[in-house]
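Input (structure):
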């Protein structure tokens, strides 16, 4: 399967005003998030399966388990 991602990431970071080297130029904050991915699912049983996705967005690789509620 294929999918897309469009959203906004909210982030808050509190930094030391003078952290010294090598942390002098750290910038942090949220912003727009966008990307696309390709994935595959595999059913282990009628209710349990696994999936893997690769793409661009929040993470380069995502893997996990799924559970179908009857």
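Output (sequence):
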């Amino acid at each position: 399967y294929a999918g897309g991602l469009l959203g906004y990431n909210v982030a808050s970071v509190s930094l030391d005003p003078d952290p010294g080297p090598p942390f002098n130029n750290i910038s942090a904050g949220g912003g727009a998030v966008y990307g696309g991915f390709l994935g595959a699912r595999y059913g282990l049983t009628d209710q349990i399966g696994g999936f893997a996705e690769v793409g661009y967005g929040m993470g380069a690789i995502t893997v996990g388990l799924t559970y179908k509620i009857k």
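Notes: The beta strands are 2-9, 31-43, 48-56, 61-67. The first strand starts at residue 2 and ends at 9.
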